From TrEMBL:
A Pfam family per the record: Formyl_trans_N
Positions with a binding annotation for (6R)-10-formyltetrahydrofolate: 64, 89-92, 106
Alphabetical list of HAMAP family matching this protein: PurN
Gene name tied to this protein: purN
Positions that bind N(1)-(5-phospho-beta-D-ribosyl)glycinamide: 11-13
Family: Belongs to the GART family.
Catalytic activity, as annotated: N(1)-(5-phospho-beta-D-ribosyl)glycinamide + (6R)-10-formyltetrahydrofolate = N(2)-formyl-N(1)-(5-phospho-beta-D-ribosyl)glycinamide + (6S)-5,6,7,8-tetrahydrofolate + H(+)
GO CC list: cytosol
Gene3D superfamilies for the chain: Formyl transferase, N-terminal domain
Alphabetical list of SUPFAM superfamilies matching this protein: Formyltransferase
Species lineage: Bacteria, Bacillati, Actinomycetota, Actinomycetes, Micrococcales
Record-linked PROSITE patterns: GART
NCBIfam families (alphabetical): PurN
Entry protein name: Phosphoribosylglycinamide formyltransferase
C-alpha cells in the first residue's frame, strides 16, 4: 500500500509511522511526505529518513481552489493508495477526496464528534471534560467529519495543560494510527 502523508507541523505522529515502517512493524510504502507550508519539522523528518518531500504553500495562493487543485495533482503524481493527514491543518475539497477514491485518513486529538477543529485539545480542556482521546477516521470534505475507524480514551488529569494532555493523547494517537494503517493495508477496512 503506497501512502502519501500530509503534515503541517512537528510531525511526531509521522515519525512514529516512519519508525514503524523502518522497524518492519508496518508494511506500507511511503511514497512522499508533503506540507502546506515551507520549513516544517515534519518534512525535515521525512527528508532525513530519505523519502521524497514536497510543499504546496497555501499562502502563495490567493484562490483556495487553485491551491486545492495543485495539491491534488502533486499528491496524485505519487500514485498513492491512501493519503494520510497527520497533523495537516487544512481542509481539502470534494475533488481531492474523490481523486483518492475516499481513501483520505485523518487523525484527530479528541473523541469525535466532540471537539472538531484546530483546537480539539484546548476545547476539551476548556469545556471541562474528564475523558477525551483521539480518533482515526476516513475524512470527507468537512472539518474532522467522516466514518470513524478507531478511537482511544485518555483521562484528563488535575493540573493538565493543553501541552501535557496533548502529549498523552499523542501516545494513543500514534498507536491507533499504526494499528489502523496495518488493518487497512491487510484489507481489513472498507473505504469511505
Ligand atoms: C496531532 O495530535 C494531530 O491529530 C493534530 O495535530 C497533532 C499533530 O502532531 N491535528 P504532530 O505534528 O504529529 O507532532
Amino acid at each position: 500500500m503506497r501512502i502519501v502523508v500530509l503534515v503541517s507541523g512537528t510531525g511526531s505522529n509521522l515519525q512514529a509511522v516512519l519508525d514503524a515502517v523502518r522497524d518492519g512493524r508496518l508494511d506500507v510504502e511511503i511514497a512522499a511526505v508533503g506540507s502546506d507550508r515551507p520549513g516544517t519539522q515534519g518534512v525535515r523528518r521525512a527528508a532525513d529518513a530519505g523519502y521524497p518531500t514536497f510543499v504546496v504553500p497555501f499562502r502563495d495562493y490567493p484562490v483556495r481552489a487553485d491551491w486545492n487543485r495543485d495539491l491534488t495533482e502533486k499528491v496524485a503524481s505519487y500514485d498513492p493508495d491512501l493519503v494520510l493527514s497527520s497533523g495537516f491543518m487544512r481542509i481539502v475539497d470534494e475533488s481531492f477526496i474523490a481523486r483518492f477514491d475516499g481513501r483520505y485518513l485523518n487523525t484527530h486529538p479528541a473523541l469525535l464528534p466532540s471537539f472538531p477543529g484546530a483546537h480539539g485539545v484546548r476545547d476539551a480542556l476548556a469545556y471541562g471534560v474528564k475523558v477525551t482521546g483521539c480518533t482515526v477516521h476516513w475524512a470527507d470534505a468537512g472539518v474532522d467529519t467522516g466514518p470513524i475507524l478507531a478511537q482511544a480514551a485518555v483521562e484528563v488529569l488535575d493540573g493538565d495543560t493543553e501541552e501535557t494532555l496533548h502529549e498523552r493523547i499523542k501516545v494513543q494517537e500514534r498507536r491507533l494510527l499504526i494499528e489502523t494503517l496495518d488493518r487497512i493495508s491487510r484489507g481489513g477496512i472498507p473505504k469511505l
